[in-house]
Amino acid sequence: MFIAHLPAGYIMARRLAPRLAPDAPQARRLMAVCLVAAVLPDIDLLYFYLVDGRQTLHHDYWTHIPAFWLLSTGAAVTLFRIARAPVPWPAVAGLLAGVFLHLALDTVTGGIAWLYPYHTGSIVLVDVPARFGWWVWNFVLHWSFVLELAVVIWAAIELGVVRRMRELRQRPAMGVLARAGRRRD
After folding, report:
1. Considering 17, 29, 79, 171, which has the largest number of Cβ atoms within 10 A of its Cβ?
2. Which whole number is the average pLDDT over 4-31?
3. Which H, E and C letters describe 100-143, residue by residue?
């Protein structure tokens, strides 16, 4: 996936935040956690380009291995418990949901080692053949890119609907009704 991680994270966060956060400020913070988590596994691209010289497929790095995220989360929760601090369960859920959404999206065409450490092979749903010189065109011109575009459009529509609803809540009800009556004329 190229362009759908953040929009998919937005769609997920819009559903998750109201259910896990007790008030609006916490819902906004949880939404931020979900959005960051939806792109977080791709932090390995810095290493891929700056250090590794593109020698290893970035989906083979630890940030794209589900077991790493489960173990890291377990370790963090254990540290919270040892410190006798309250575990921020909504943030933990948002982080894991965003990361695992990212990994699920990458499974479509990129491949993820879901069974690691028991099996080191990657699971990929659709093989994208190398037909063009620049590797990006192989993905952008493949039919699976339509799925990404659908996610982006869905998120854009949802964002527009949310903004319109917010605008309606801020306007006085009579003003909305008056404007609606003028549109019919």
Report:
1. 17
2. 94
3. HHHHHHHHHHCCECCCCCCCCCCECCCCCCCCCCCHHHHHHCCC
What's the maximum distance between 2 C-alpha atoms anywhere in the chain? 68
Token pair 């959404």 is found at: 101
Tokens standing for residue 135: 């590797």
* DSSP E strand stretches across the chain: none
Tell me the whole-structure pTM to 2 decimals: 0.85
Tell me if 129 sits within 8 A of 138, measured CB to CB. Answer: yes
Task: Provide the phi-psi class of 88: left if phi over 0, else alpha when psi is between -120 and 50, else beta.
Answer: beta
Distances (CA, A) of 14 to 103, 142, 159: 19, 29, 9
Tens digits of per-residue pLDDT, 38-82? 999 999 999 999 999 989 989 999 999 999 999 999 999 999 999
